[in-house]
Amino acid sequence: MTESRTHTLFSFGTLRDERVQTALFGRAVPTSPASLAGYTTRPLKITDPAVIAASGLDVHLILERRLGASVEGALLHLTDQELAAADAYEVDDYTRRRVVLSSGATTWAYLDAKPLRPAERIVVVGDSIAYGRCDPRGGWAGHLAAAHIAGNEAERRLFNLAVPGSTLADVGEQTPALLAARRPDTLLVAAGINDSAVPAARTEADAGSNSASASGSDGAADLARLAGSLDTLAATALGHNARLVVAGPSWLDEDRTRDYEGLCFTRARALALRAFVRAWCEANRIDFLDLWEPLRERTELLVDGLHPTAEGHRALYEHLDAHGR
C-alpha cells in the first residue's frame, strides 16, 4: 500500500475556513501563517452552487501579480487525497501551480487559469517566430505587448528577448542571465521548432532507403533530450518567482519547408514536438498554450511555409489572447 505524501498549499481565501475544510477533507487540517510576495488579489464572481454552498460566498478572491505587494494567508498541510479534494473544490477559473513564499520556500497555490491575465511583467524568449520575423509590427509578441501595456501603462511591461534561430536548448542556456534586470513575474517560452529540424540531406536519404521508422526513432530521442532544457527553464522561472508559460509550435506547410536554409521542417516532427511539450507541461503542472490551430491549413498566412505573415501573426495573437488572457 502506497503511503500518502504531505503537500503544502498556500491559501488566502475560503480554504482557510474550518467549515470549508471539514466539508472537503472531513477534518480541520494543520495550518501555519504564510506570506506570498509579488502578488495582490482581486474579486472573482463564483457561479458553481456546490462551491457557494461550501464557502457561503459567491465572490472569492484570485491572485494577481503586483511588484512589491504581498498577500497574507496560511499554509495548509494536506495528504494526496486532500490535495485532490482541494483541486475538485476550485472552479475552472483557478489552476494549481508552484509559487515562492516570502520565506523563499516553494509551495502550491491556486492561480488564474488564464496564465497571462494576472501578469504584470512578462518576458518572452524564443525563436524567429516569437521574435516577429516577417512582421514589421513585431509579430504576435508585438500585438501582445501593445494590448498588455495599454491595460496599465504605468505598471505593465513586456520584454521580447527572442532570438531568431534559437533552439530550446539555446533558450535554456541564455535565459537565466537575462531575467534579473527585468524582474519578470511571467516567463513565456516560445521555442522548439528549430530543435525538430533535420538536415534536408538526411530526410532525402531516409526517403530513398525507406527508413522512416529509424528516422522516427531518432526523432523520439531528440525530443527526449528537450526535457532537460524545459526543466532548466522551469527552475529558472521559479527562482525568480515567475510563472512559466510554454507556447507550442504553430502549424507549418511541409510542402514549402522541405529545404529551408539546408534544414527540413516536417509536420510529423512538429506534431511530435507539440505532443511532447504538452505532455511535459501536464506532468509538471506548467501552463501550455497551443499555437497549432490558428494557422492549420491556412497556408496563405505563411510567408515560406514556416514563418507567419503579418496576418498570420495577428491570428496567433488573437488565439493566444483568447486562451491566455
From TrEMBL:
It comes from the Bacteria. Residues 9-113 form the Gamma-glutamylcyclotransferase AIG2-like domain. Residues 124-315 form the SGNH hydrolase-type esterase domain. It holds the Pfam family Lipase_GDSL_2. InterPro entries: AIG2-like_dom, Ester_Hydrolysis_Enzymes, GGCT-like, GGCT-like_sf, SGNH_hydro, SGNH_hydro_sf. PANTHER family: SGNH HYDROLASE-TYPE ESTERASE DOMAIN-CONTAINING PROTEIN, THIOESTERASE 1/PROTEASE 1/LYSOPHOSPHOLIPASE L1. This is GDSL-type esterase/lipase family protein. The lineage of its organism: Bacteria, Bacillati, Actinomycetota, Actinomycetes, Kitasatosporales.
